[in-house]
Amino acid sequence: MEGGDHSKLREVVIANSTSDTWVGAKAEWKLLFIYDADGACVCGHAIVENCVIENKLNANQLIVGNVCVNQFQEDELAVEGKARSSLRKVRANPTGCKANKALLGLALRLGILSHSEWNWYSKQTQGKGSRTRYAEGGDPAALAFRTKINRLILLGFCADRPKCNCGEYAKPRQNSHNQTYFYSCARWPNGCAFTKTV
């Protein structure tokens, strides 16, 4: 396996799962989020593209690289290369870059964006008038909404994303009154009272 130790990956994943076989263990995991930073995969390989995964049965968490996450071959762990490249572009230009469908879909699937945010952004960036809407001197409301969505994506896909009091990773949000950003419980308003300003 290029860029990783497949046998070590299986060993660590099985040790952190309830199943004692690779086939059973790999099905227990889901993706929480991704981020780019120098680190190490559980297989021992140095990585930059980090995937934070969680066991659905015992809540154990591991960090694996993009090569190793593909070894699971599970839909809940899938990360398209197009999503990663779009994330890098948004990080480089958060006010002037449009997130692609793959990144928006991943952010929706992982609870970083709400369905209404994803739906509105998709409508704004497709169809008639979508190019001129975001051109220089275009629609200020559309440009502000794109910036908001990009900022939420960047806050959701970062190494220091906090956990709320429930133990889950908090959801990034924007205060509609003053446009500041904060994290709160992903299950708000039915979750805990966790909040942290950015």
Would you mind describing this structure in some detail?
It is a single chain. With about 200 residues, the chain is of the alpha+beta class. It has three domains: about 5-75, no CATH class; about 80-160, no CATH class; about 160-198, N-terminal domain of TfIIb, CATH 2.20.25. It contains eight helices and six strands, in the order ααβββααααααβββ. The protein has helices at about 5-15, 20-25, 65-70, 80-90, 100-110, 115-125, 130-135, 140-155, and strands spanning about 30-40, 45-55, 60-65, 170-175, 180-185, 195. It has a three-stranded antiparallel beta sheet with strand order 1-2-3. Strand 1 (about 30-40) and strand 2 (about 45-55) form a beta hairpin. Helix 4 (about 80-90) crosses helix 5 (about 100-110) and helix 6 (about 115-125) crosses helix 8 (about 140-155). The longest helix is centred in the last third of the chain and has 17 residues, at about 140-155. The radius of gyration is 18 Å and the shape is globular. The termini are far apart. The model has no long low-confidence stretch (mean pLDDT about 90).
